[in-house]
Specification:
Blueprint (H helix, E strand, L loop, with lengths): L5 E5 L3 H9 L6 E6 L3 E3 L4 H5 L9 E3 H4 L6 E5 L2 E5 L4 E4 L4 E3 L2 E4 L3 E3 L17 H24 L7 E5 L3 H17 L13 E5 L11 H13 L2 E4 L4 E5 L2 E4 L2 E4 L2 E4 L3 E3 L16 E2 L5 E2 L2 E6 L4 E2 L12 H19 L14 E6 L2 E6 L2 E4 L1 H14 L3 H17 L11 H12 L2 H17 L1
Length: 446
């Protein structure tokens, strides 16, 4: 009886999960390792951050997704290193997991261009925890303004700042404007939430720079229709509690969100091969690393140029295609067949901006507004994992469309969190220092 090859997959995101699904019940033994027990549908994270959806509606336990795969085990753990020569993965508790094939798909985090201390004041959006924290800050800003207006008679306009005009920044800006002008407009007595000011700062000359110029201009126009102030060619050069610095000017704000800059998981550097400035691993055309035909790096961690010289984009469709292609090459090895080089098939890109507002580029055809928004809805429901999740999300969207209400408007945290938020907005040094200390501890833990 022959021993089946052992395939270890690191990461349960789109790349790792699609590889695992493609290897399900094949003549290999699969071990999938992830720090979390769930897969997150990242394209909808901003809807958790803006109180449209609850976390459980866009996340599904990994075990549940691949429960039909009798050859696959899921391990909860964090990978800290590799022994590539002896074919072992090293976990944070010192445990070693042997492999014949290794697929590294640990994803990416937001990057602050050498200013990691900014994360305390300006959280990014990559995980469920990030989304819940952003939701807390956005909703708490309205609550604190209402509190001041009622108890102190102090009425002021709220200022929300989003740094970065990519898909995440555009989605957040449009959604926050929608919350202020529609979802919360009738719920507060002492303040008028419609007076909230939402500003999007983008360092280049247009938002959504990877799209065609006409779509970028349409996105900017649709944002402005929602009341978002779009400031192009504007670089944020510093961030402090309650304010951001653009050029030489400091601008006060209640909430600042980070939506620019991506860095691959630092675990890629432990493979001992070259990486780019963002930490992405330079891979061969078949997605393996130089010198190791049994080690694949895929998804946001991989740096690979297409035939046209453009890099494969760090988007979920590319990660899914990489996962499936990697599985095919492993199975080809077992059948003594030739591997195939990876070729990314661009089936189109789209971005949502707000209610009935979106843009889409599908095979060179450009769509804007309501039609693009409907295409975006259909596509995201189609790829959302789990029949139950699809039904719930459809119902939530239908309800939100009819009523303009948000059903997940929960502020998590205890009384101490409220006190910290009050002090943070006022810039009390001691509390700010403590919050920064806690954030640094989180970074070390990661």
């Amino acid at each position: 009886m022959s021993i089946k090859p052992r395939v270890v997959i690191i990461g349960g995101g789109f790349g790792g999960l699609w590889a695992a699904k493609a290897l399900a019940n094949k003549p290999v033994e699969v071990t999938l390792i992830d720090r979390k027990n769930h897969h997150v549908f990242q394209p909808l994270l901003y809807q958790v951050a803006t109180a449209v959806l609850s976390p459980g509606e866009i996340a599904t336990p990994i075990r549940r997704i691949i429960h039909h795969a009798k050859n696959t085990e899921v391990i909860l753990g964090e990978v800290t290193g590799f022994d590539t020569e002896n074919k072992k993965v090293i976990l944070d508790d010192g445990t070693e997991v042997a492999f014949d094939y290794l697929i590294v798909a640990a994803g990416a985090r937001h990057a602050y261009f050498g200013h990691d201390d900014w994360e305390t004041s300006a959280p990014g959006l990559k995980t469920i925890e990030d989304a819940v924290e952003i939701r807390r800050r956005v909703l708490l800003a309205f609550e604190l303004a209402e509190r001041d207006a009622y108890l102190k008679g102090t009425r002021r306009s709220l200022n929300f700042v989003i740094v970065g005009g990519g898909p995440t920044g555009v989605e957040l800006a449009g959604a926050i404007a929608g919350i202020a002008r529609q979802a919360l407009a009738k719920d507060f007595m002492a303040i008028d939430t419609r007076d909230a000011h939402v500003v999007l700062f983008e360092g280049s000359d247009r938002v959504l720079g990877t799209f065609a110029r006409d779509l970028s201009e349409s996105a900017k126009s649709q944002l402005e229709d929602l009341g978002v102030e779009v400031r192009l060619n504007s670089f944020v050069t510093d961030i402090a509690p309650g304010k951001v610095k653009v050029g030489e000017d400091w601008i006060g704000c209640d909430v600042v969100l980070w939506a620019t800059g991506v860095a691959a998981s630092p675990i890629g550097k432990k493979l001992g091969v070259a990486t780019d400035k963002a930490g992405r691993v330079f891979v061969e055309p078949d997605l393996t690393i130089p010198g190791h035909k049994n080690i694949f790096v895929i998804g946001d961690m991989a740096s690979l140029k297409q035939e046209n010289g453009e890099p494969v984009p760090g988007v979920s469709p590319a990660a899914m295609q990489m996962g499936a292609a990697t599985a095919d090459n492993i199975l080809a090895d077992l059948k003594a067949k030739d591997r195939k080089n990876f070729r990314y098939v661009d089936k189109g890109t789209m971005a949502t901006i707000g209610r009935s507002k979106a843009i889409a580029d599908v095979q060179g055809f450009h769509f804007k507004g309501f039609i693009a928004w409907m295409m975006w809805l259909f596509l995201h429901v189609f790829f959302l994992i789990g029949f139950r999740n699809r039904i719930i999300v459809l119902l939530e969207w239908f309800w939100a469309y009819l009523t303009r209400e948000r059903s997940a408007r929960l502020i998590t945290g205890d009384a101490n969190e409220l006190k910290n938020a009050l002090a943070f907005l006022e810039g009390e040094d001691a509390v700010v220092a403590e919050m920064q200390k806690r954030e640094e501890a989180k970074q070390v833990a990661r």
